[in-house]
Amino acid sequence: MTDNTKKRKSPSTGNSAPAAKRPRFPPRPSRNIAATPSSTAYPNGQVNVAQFMRAHENEIRSLENAMKSARKGLSRRAFQLVPRDLRRRTGSHNPQRVPRRLRPQARREAKDDNTPIKKGKSGSGVGKGAKGWLRKEDIKKRNRTKDKRQKVTVRPTEGEHSRHNDSSGGRKSAPTDSTAPPKKRKNFAALAAPPTPASRFRRRQVHKTWLPSHLFHTKRATMTPPKEPLWRFAIPLSPAVKTYRTTHRAATERGAIAWDMSYMATIGLEAAEESITGLLKALQFAKGDEGFLWSMRGRGKKWRDGSRIWEGWIHEREGTLPKPIAQVAVIWSVQRPGSNKRKAFIRVHPSAFLRLWNVVIRAANVQKPSVIVDDLRFEIGSIEIMGPAAMETLCSVLTPTATETSDLPSDVPRAIWPRLASVTRPGELPQNALVAFNISDPRLRHPPKTASVLDDAEDKLLGTLTEWPVDRTQTTPSIFDRTARLASGRLLSSQQSINRRKGAVAVPGQYPDLRPTDPQIPMLTYVSKNSNTLTVLLPWKCVKSVWKCLMQYPCSSGGNPRFGGLQERRQVDFERSMPSFPFDFPGTDAGWEWELKEREARKHEWTKRPRGKRIEWTSIPLGDGRKGEVGDPWACDWTRLLPESHGNLDEEAQILASPFRYLASAQAEGILASRSEATSQEFLDIPHLFTVKVSMVQRGMPTDCARVYKFPSKKPELQKKWLSLYESSKSKNPPGKSAKKPLSHPNTTQALAASLLESPKAGDDEYPIVPDEEDLIGFVTTGNFNLAEGRPTAIANLVLQRVVALEDGGVLKTDSRYDGKRLCIVREAGQTLGRLAMWDVV
Amino acid sequence: MVRVKNRYLTVNYLYTGQSRASNKNDATFPELLQFHQPTPDDFTAGKLVRAIRDGVLELFGDYGLGMVNTGLKVTYHSTATSTSIIRCPQAHYEMVWAALTFMTKLPKPNDAPVVVRVVRVSGTIKKAEEEVIRRARDLILRAKMAEAGRAEAGLVTNMLTAVDTSAHKEREREKQVLVDVDMDSAEENESESD
């Protein structure tokens, strides 16, 4: 063996044992249990009671020590002592990556283990690995220019100016001429630029933006890969720990689950009320609800007064059947007294933001007087929270700022707020209710305390909830005010100064006194019926401090609120059997884009596997001599379901926009029940998709991309087989079985034999084969085991034309609703077996 | 993971015969202490192992010795309190037990008559240690009571004996259960290995 100086040197130079023979870990403390010999226990050979007792006491002590050391001696290494969700891969070899209290131990272990410690190589700036100092020149150059710049801007008084400008204009309007007066805001709408990050984080945010809570999430969750951000954001996908069941529990049974939803886009509208109303009407906001929406009383009135929100679909302007863009929430600001201008927010998912933005701008220019449209994407962040403890968490963390007048009327939002702590479901609050007031910095009241429920709170709460005085007393929320938003962000004190203030408090555990200079953070919370969550709107810069305190709130039911990623967001919707935007809406452009992306990902997953271990799609036997998967096996291959007349779409057009339209559930229900015959024909001309919930009749688990068939229309034989399968599944566990009178013995055996004959098992030769491609009606977009229902369910999209054609078939009219149920056959991609299922429009 | 399974025998050495202590003629010397006398220091752990090996060889021959020898170890040996914990292979712990039971004298140079009593068979060293601790506590308590009883002999003697017998009964029952449980678990393990 050659002497390789680059190899690790052994820790002690005298140790010449070969590396393999050396113990990898320091030997465990020996398991010898100390015992006193008789000669020391009884020095002169005399046995007396006192010595006897002492000897036994010594024995007890030594054995207890032995047990303790045995427990410790299980040799847990320092990085293993960190809670599971805070462990880092780097923690196993870099002592800097474990909590400070464990660092000495980790360093010692690394030394014993003869591992070289590398410091400062796994961060930013200096680069990693062999590249090391590759960017050294760059860094030096940057520092030099920074110094120069600082020298230039040292001029007094104007420094203030330029900072203001910077924060208001974003990156693009960075101060070039600091002597110029503050620019007047532009009249035409421009897309917002993300805030300029700190220099050491800037290079990581060139093509994406971090959420305000990025540093929290990136430690604890799987984020989107650095090169493939979602909607130009680095979004947490799922926590690093196991979460499927805990998410379900937190969302429905105990505790709470929160998401940093700052990536949701907000569009600000400002104009006279008629103009905003005109704009929303032009975009057919909440089509189908117009009666309520624009009426002069009731819910619509409250919504326009700014005390409720409204969630609905927003459409493009063109065409008799306008194309739905996205599900949005529209929030009006309460009218400021003495001003005839109104403000409103449109909150939309980032995947549909640009489309909506373009449409809104065009519609805004048409209005007279025109509407000022603002892109508030990086100005307003939001947190969504769900679960029984959601309200108490918010009540404790979001505390209203102190007011000058000590006697607050008992029905203003900030007075009502603490009383709401015992609300456990958003449904208990008035539908789509909204509460807004200014809060103080939650870091000043950290650690948060469990919200206390007063004795008389229950009665008062009931009164409040039924009366809901906020409808009258809500003042203009300051989150609609740009200066208030920016001021709160700017006034936020550093963590260091907050720590200093907390340290100065005489009694530990007491919160520091609030000062008049403390920021007043504008906050608006609303209840979303659609997603069953509470949404908190905050200025972008204040989200982080609220989020941190939120995550440490001790719930009254124990534990802290959990956090979720995108996957959990979809999971909770799925468990409520609700489609989630944009994933379950391939009929919209946003959903179509997502589908194309997923297709690629699935294909990549498949190609990654070795040839012998991946499904050979072309050789899947579908029975009756048919071979090969229907359509693209990785995709919900919607193009195959396009009617003949639309069949020849070129590829590029497909990439740009969905060839389908989304059909709202109410309309779909109407057409299926042939209630709205007049409009049906219009709908049938354009291919439409509608979302349904699929639940299995027998067994089987529908997963993403599963194929949904209707009962075979042109093969009566096969259809009969499937129907008999359904019948036998019913007779196996009929609902009122016990009420049946007992059959006589021969009859029982006959029935048993018949039932055995009747229901072929999956995999038998008699089990009916799947229908042909012409009977394909849709695909499953989300499918999994549903913990809320205790069985597998799925959200699927069906093509209207394929389903309705079945109803018009005449002979098979009953088929669509057989036995009061809409039956279908679900087959997973790559599987040969079809399973019975039923669907309902959701 | 496959691992070698052991049994841990907790063993007490009891001295019923003539007291080796110098104060054997002392009438006030409590019976308890006489029974639980310290073992001489020259009875070391090594000698105990050798004695067990000899016993197994005598009773079960080379086969027994071969079976037992693999995992035999004295994990705890306290002469002051006459207690040991002996580790032996799970499948053949009864051979070790038998060898211990047939031991009537301490090994050679000493030759004092002794009763070796296996008080607990356990699958983990932790439970064996807990048993030793429990017994030591019990002994301390009884020693205290014995001393108190000596002070006011007439009054307390009856009560003491009553307590003593009841405690003894209790222990007997407990031991029964423990042995049963251990036996059960041993059988289970065996059946699993089958």
Automatic annotation (TrEMBL), chain A:
Record's compositionally biased regions (Basic residues): 1-10, 141-152
One Gene Ontology cellular component annotation held by this UniProt entry: ribonuclease MRP complex
InterPro entries per UniProt: Pop1, POP1_C, Pop1_N, POPLD_dom
UniProt keyword Phosphoprotein, yes or no: no
Span of domain POPLD: 534-638
Coiled-coil residue windows: none
Protein location: Nucleus
Record protein name field: Ribonucleases P/MRP protein subunit POP1-domain-containing protein
Compositional bias annotation for Basic and acidic residues: 106-116, 157-166
Polar residues: compositionally biased ranges: 33-44, 167-179
Domain Pop1 N-terminal: 52-271
Organism of provenance: Lophiotrema nucula
Keywords: Nucleus, tRNA processing
Claim: Signal is one of the keywords in the record: no
Superkingdom of source: Eukaryota
Domain POP1 C-terminal: 689-841
A GO biological process held by the record: tRNA 5'-leader removal
Region (Disordered): 1-44, 81-202
Pfam families attached to this UniProt entry: POP1_C (PF22770), POP1_N (PF06978), POPLD (PF08170)
UniProtKB/TrEMBL annotation, chain B:
Chain intervals with Acidic residues compositional bias: 181-194
Reactions the enzyme catalyzes: Endonucleolytic cleavage of RNA, removing 5'-extranucleotides from tRNA precursor
A GO CC term attached to the entry: ribonuclease MRP complex
Protein name per Swiss-Prot or TrEMBL: Ribonuclease P/MRP protein subunit POP5
Gene3D superfamilies in the record: Ribonuclease P, Pop5 subunit (3.30.70.3250)
EC id: 3.1.26.5
Gene Ontology annotations of biological process type: maturation of 5.8S rRNA; tRNA 5'-leader removal
Chain residue ranges for the region called Disordered: 168-194
Cell compartments where the protein resides: Nucleus
Keywords attached to this entry: Hydrolase, Nucleus, tRNA processing
Function: Component of ribonuclease P, a protein complex that generates mature tRNA molecules by cleaving their 5'-ends. Also a component of RNase MRP, which cleaves pre-rRNA sequences.
GO molecular function terms attached to this record: ribonuclease P activity; ribonuclease P RNA binding
Protein family: Belongs to the eukaryotic/archaeal RNase P protein component 2 family.
Bias (Basic and acidic residues) ranges: 168-177
Pfam families: RNase_P_Rpp14
